[in-house]
Amino acid sequence: MKKNNFVEFEVQGGYVELNYLRDKNNRKLYVDVESARAAGVANPETSDRVVRYLDGTPIGKVTLGEKSKRILKVPKEETAIIEALSWHEFVSSDLKPNSMAKITMRDLSKADEGKAENLQKQKIVDSVYINLEDEEIADLGVLLGYPADDANAKLNVLRNSKPDLFLSYFTEPLVMKGGKFYTAKLTEKTKVSAVLKRAVLAKVVTVSAGSISYEEEVLGIDFNTAVTNLMDTTKQGKSNILPLIKQKLSA
């Protein structure tokens, strides 16, 4: 992807003329030597009160209009120009958001970074989905309420429409074979949740007013609490009951 190393300043309507700019301390800066000299700036030819490009050329008066030039595109490396524009009271920028501004700043390089991140995420999601095992498809299917014969197709839709949600059921994806594909396993929470969901459907556990019990043992006041308790290996936890539930489900 070709990197867009520019920052755009776009007028939102009408016509705007900037005869001066600002620094972060709200100090007035000048767009040319003549205006700086008229304002009494000492040595305007070399003063930092005049906003210049890297080659030393003053920026000059900035004019933008919806019927003429709507956008000023500034190379990312021209930091002095970008900052001086960003602090102007007519501009809404990352440095100084302003809902009433006449000009908005847009960092195109950040937009490209976002696109690249989304493409990388989709690559990971696609790879994890392709490498799903039948048992994992079954677990996700029952947990998400998908019909068994349609679970794979439903997961395909989920990974495309909600990639973050899809990945939330897995451990951190690992890069395999020199980064050509990724693999990940279901988290322990996802697997235990699938077991409990099967147990609810098979009536191996009972649900009363949201509370879930196995025989006379209360597992939790709701589904999520029950899952947490079934994963808890401390004396207060219910992890010892998980194998009993699995055994009844496989009987």
**SSE ordering:** EEEEHEEHEEHHHHEEHEEEHH
Biggest sheet overview: 4 strands, mixed
Whole-angstrom Rg: 30 Å
**Separation of termini?**
55 Å
Number of domains: 3
Low-confidence stretches: none
**Large-scale geometry:** elongated
Going across the biggest sheet, name each strand in turn: 6-1-8-7
Describe what you observe in this structure.
By secondary structure, the chain is of the alpha+beta class. The protein has three domains: 106 residues, no CATH class; 56 residues, no CATH class; 62 residues, Rec A Protein, domain 2 (2-Layer Sandwich), CATH 3.30.250.10. Helices cover 38% and strands 20% of the residues. It contains nine helices and 13 strands. It has a four-stranded mixed β-sheet. Strand 11 and strand 12 form a beta hairpin. The two termini are 55 Å apart. The model has no long low-confidence stretch (mean pLDDT 90).
Describe the secondary-structure layout.
Blueprint: E1 6-11, E2 15-18, E3 20-22, E4 28-30, H1 33-38, E5 62-65, E6 71-75, H2 79-86, E7 91-92, E8 103-107, H3 108-130, H4 134-144, H5 151-161, H6 163-167, E9 174-176, E10 181-183, H7 188-201, E11 206-208, E12 211-214, E13 217-220, H8 223-231, H9 242-250
Parallel strand pairs: 7-8
Antiparallel strand pairs: 1-6, 1-8, 2-5, 3-4, 9-10, 11-12, 12-13
Helix pairs in contact: 3-5, 4-5, 4-7, 7-8, 7-9
Please give a quick description of this structure.
This protein has 251 residues and is an alpha+beta fold. It has 9 helices and 13 strands.
